[in-house]
Amino acid sequence: MGSLGDLTISRFGYGAMQLAGPGVMGPPADHEGALAVLREAVELGITHIDTADAYGPRITNRLIREALHPYPDSLHLVTKVGATRDAQGGWPQARRPDELRRAVHDNLDSLGLDVLDVVNLRLGDAQGPRPEPIAEAFETLVELREQGLIRHLGVSNATADQVAEAQSIAPIVCVQNMYNLAQRHDDALIDRLADEDVAFVPFFPLGGFSPLQSAALSAVAARFGVTPMAVALAWLLRRSPNILLIPGTSSAAHLRENVAGAGLVLSDEDVAELEGTGR
Ligand SMILES: NC(=O)c1ccc[n+]([C@@H]2O[C@H](COP(=O)([O-])OP(=O)(O)OC[C@H]3O[C@@H](n4cnc5c(N)ncnc54)[C@H](OP(=O)(O)O)[C@@H]3O)[C@@H](O)[C@H]2O)c1
Where is the NADP-dependent oxidoreductase domain (predicted)? Predict the structure, then answer.
């Protein structure tokens, strides 16, 4: 098991972004199938679901509510604010205090909750983190937490300096940044956060829209008789105890495959072979 502050969650979680339509816009082609994936996740023991009202927009949160509300006590939903959507499917930032307040209320409404377990302030843009001040936006979320609308805070798509800036204002329980076998720029940050008992939650753990591929990944997967996806997830679980997984899928079969596969135990030799991928 893992933790987000005082919340105990499964280290293997689920990222709900893939449930919206193409380009994370509009409803899924298979509405019942999307509900089935969410219910399957909970049946498999997953107690951490990552979402955002920007997915769809408002589609993914409503699917989660339709599939799972009233939520089991053990289930914890993590959402993000700080970006919205435009008509072209872009992700313009929405980090003014009034936009953040509205986004928190919209998430409460679409998820059917009185309190959000964890809210990440999503920084930067679709190209990655940007070195810019975050104090005004983060302080707005701290106010909303003090009002009792949010239990815990985190940051996403953040530079190491922005993580430190947030921590100088208020405690955070997680950082959600892009990281996987081939994208290792947050290695030092992960180790620092592990020392501080702050979770690191990689987005695009399987490479996102460009699936991870490497000869080493395929060779190790073939030895275990599992998919390369399973090996990529098992490597993340082994990389550091503060890493929590939120791989995305719109397929119940892939979800089952990933949960089962990520349980494999990699040897030191397997890890040495895989470590070449991102260097
Ligand atoms: N904070 C941020 O800015 C940010 C940005 C992006 C994402 N996120 C979060 O991170 C989560 C994970 O990211 P992600 O879903 O974009 O990327 P991901 O988990 O790296 O990869 C998802 C992709 O892998 C495929 N996949 C999953 N399991 C598979 C399997 N066993 N075999 C073959 N293909 C498989 C999925 O396709 P199928 O649907 O066909 O399985 C999907 O296309 C998201 O759901 C979201 O919650 C956050």
Answer: 13-275
Q: How far, in Å, is the centroid of ligand 1 from the Cα of 219? A: 22
Q: Ligand 1, closest atom to CA 15?
A: 45
Residue 236 lies in a domain: no
What is the number of domains present in the chain?
1
**Contacts (Cβ under 8 Å, ≥6 apart) of 24:** 17, 54, 55, 56, 89
Domain assignment of residue 261, yes or no: no
Q: Whose CA is nearest to atom 17 of ligand 1?
A: 208
Q: Return the CATH number at 29.
A: 3.20.20.100
Residue bearing tokens 């990552």: 50
Q: State the residue range of the domain holding 148.
A: 7-176
Model-level pTM?
A: 0.97
Q: What is the CB < 6 Å shell around ligand 1?
A: 15-18, 50, 80, 122, 156-157, 176, 203-208, 211, 227, 229, 246-251, 254, 257-258
In a domain, 226, yes or no: no
Of the candidates 8, 18, 12, the one whose C-alpha atom is nearest the C-alpha of residue 248 is: 18
- The per-residue pLDDT for range 164-193, each reduced to its tens digit, is 999 999 999 999 999 999 999 999 999 999
Per-residue pLDDT tens for 244-265? 999 999 999 999 999 998 899 9
What residues are paired with 79 via a beta bridge?
Answer: 119
The yes-or-no answer on residue 14 being catalytic is no
> Residue 35 falls within a domain, yes or no?
yes
CA-proximal residue: ligand 1, atom 41 (nearest): 249
